[in-house]
Amino acid sequence: MAELSYRTALVTGASSGLGRGLALWLARRGVKVYAAARRRENLEALANEARAAHAHIEPVELDVADADTTLARIRELDAACGGLDLIIANAGFGQETSGKRIKWDIVQKVIDVNVTGAAATLSAVLPQMVERKRGHIVGVASLAAFRGLPRNAAYSASKAFLSTFMESLRVDLRGTGVQVTCLYPGFVKSEMTAQNKFQMPFLLETEEAVELMARAIVRGDSQYAFPWQMARVMGLVKQLPNALFDAAMRKTR
Ligand SMILES: NC(=O)c1ccc[n+]([C@@H]2O[C@H](COP(=O)([O-])OP(=O)(O)OC[C@H]3O[C@@H](n4cnc5c(N)ncnc54)[C@H](OP(=O)(O)O)[C@@H]3O)[C@@H](O)[C@H]2O)c1
């Protein structure tokens, strides 16, 4: 693979799973990566792993649910490093709650992290990127954004928000030199999916998913849904009329 054009990157949700993998993938290819999350000890371990591979990862303790702090911290990092080239809004939270017994604390946490946190992360230094005529922002949505999945009203809707947010930004930023990528993973092994009790079709290993995501980012894809089998299924599900969709969803579990 050709040398990467990024000097610096920020990856949120880098203390585990896909974010951790993406941070390492970039750092191993010479990018200075700011790895953000709440669990400091995980980030320190990640930085040590990078150091052992002669790569550079800087831990950034950050709760993206606090939008004001997120905006301020990312602006600070941007100024300190001479401009972030790549920002990956990957931090995410997912927990099922059935509409019949909906739990507000879960709905609120999903919105705080996946909607407010992601939007703040992606907006923080966008004006600076436009000014520099350089930069790349990436949102990690989900195939769950394609329809309102059962027991996942907040999660599906939060990823649909991110998907539409990225699309509008892509249109707005055309010709500015700032690239926009939205990723739609299917099921991938991680702390988040470890809690799932149901069978997950076409489940990917974390490393496989990281490789696919990183390559899509480097190619500059505007959107990338994977694995292709699940993307194909969800593409069809998206087209189903409500009566058929509802009947199919009633049959799940
Ligand atoms: N795994 C899948 O099947 C799948 C499928 C589709 C989309 N996704 C999306 O992929 C992204 C990564 O998920 P994953 O599968 O890698 O799950 P994961 O291992 O649970 O990672 C989630 C990451 O988000 C961070 N995070 C959560 N709340 C945060 C907060 N308030 N502030 C800062 N960071 C926070 C966590 O770090 P701390 O707890 O240390 O803060 C962790 O690093 C998420 O956006 C998820 O929705 C995953």
UniProtKB/TrEMBL annotation:
Q: Which Pfam families match?
A: adh_short (PF00106)
SUPFAM superfamilies to which the protein is assigned, alphabetical: NAD(P)-binding Rossmann-fold domains
Q: Does the UniProt entry include the keyword Oxidoreductase?
A: yes
What Gene3D superfamilies has UniProt attached to this entry? NAD(P)-binding Rossmann-like Domain
Q: Which residues form the Ketoreductase domain?
A: 7-187
PROSITE patterns recorded for this chain?
ADH_SHORT
- Is Oxidoreductase included in the keywords of this UniProt record? yes
Gene Ontology cellular-component annotations: membrane
GO MF assignments = oxidoreductase activity
- UniProt keyword list: Oxidoreductase
- Give the family from UniProt: Belongs to the short-chain dehydrogenases/reductases (SDR) family.
Q: What is this protein called?
A: 3-oxoacyl-[acyl-carrier protein] reductase
Query: Origin organism of this chain?
Result: Archangium gephyra
